[in-house]
Design a protein that fits this description.
twelve-stranded antiparallel β-sheet; mainly beta; globular; binds calcium ion
């Protein structure tokens, strides 16, 4: 009798232990067990970067020089990136204007690396003004929320990345095809905040933008060389 109770106790305990291990590894709640080499997904620090919630969380910035150019920012259907909506930046005359996330500057630290990405596609009416890059991402760098970093902002285009001088990106032409603009940048010393803009940098017509992201990457990710 005592042996039988002992056996039942050990058996029950084993069932509990095995059950617990299965539960902990995700077999009992429908999720796939995590393997050791599956890193966490990189988090997009920009809300609504795919514009699936229309223009929520984004704002249009039109500097004084472009106020008369009829700049607009809306979303339009049928993007070709697998979603329902894409952003449309348009102007009637050559203009410099952009969109940026509707939130405080993102706090960053010296030496940290970020991958900045946007997909763009140009309508047939999109005309790049001579001597300008046409479209860029601008990592707007700040010492503090009220003071720009004196070393210049980082510009990213199809040709690569540059600091302080968007003219280094002249010669790129956006096409009807969705094309990725991307760079991995390192935060310069003295920079504590960043705002990412997608800029039409002197052009007219319609430019479509989708899947804008800013993700923190680790130190092993190679930097995009800065054009000189
Ligand atoms: Ca989209």
């Amino acid at each position: 009798m005592r042996g039988r109770i002992y056996f039942i106790s050990v058996f029950s305990l084993s069932v509990l232990v095995v059950g617990f291990l299965l539960w902990r590894n995700g077999y009992l709640n429908g999720s796939k067990p995590k393997s050791a080499h599956e890193g966490p997904a990189l988090k997009n620090l920009l809300a609504n970067g795919d514009f699936e919630r229309s223009i929520a969380k984004w704002k249009l910035f039109v500097p004084a020089e472009s106020q008369a150019a009829g700049c607009s920012f809306i979303t339009v259907p049928e993007d070709r990136q697998g979603g329902q909506l894409r952003a449309q930046l348009a102007s009637e005359a050559p203009a410099r204007f952009g969109i940026f996330p509707d939130r405080l500057p993102i706090p960053v630290r010296y030496g940290d690396r970020y991958r900045l990405t946007a997909w763009v596609s140009a309508d047939a009416d999109f005309q790049v003004h001579a001597g300008t890059p046409g479209v860029v991402l601008r990592a707007t760098l700040f010492e503090n929320p009220e003071k720009d970093y004196p070393g210049g902002h980082i510009f990213v285009g199809f040709k690569g990345a540059a600091i302080g001088n968007p003219a280094l990106l002249i010669g790129q032409l956006p096409s009807r095809e969705w094309t990725k603009i991307e760079a991995t940048i390192k935060i310069p010393r003295g920079v504590n905040y960043l705002i990412l803009f997608v800029y039409v940098w002197r052009a007219s017509g319609k430019l479509w933008v989708d899947d804008v992201s800013m993700v923190k990457v680790d130190a092993s990710v190679p930097l995009t060389p800065l054009l000189q």
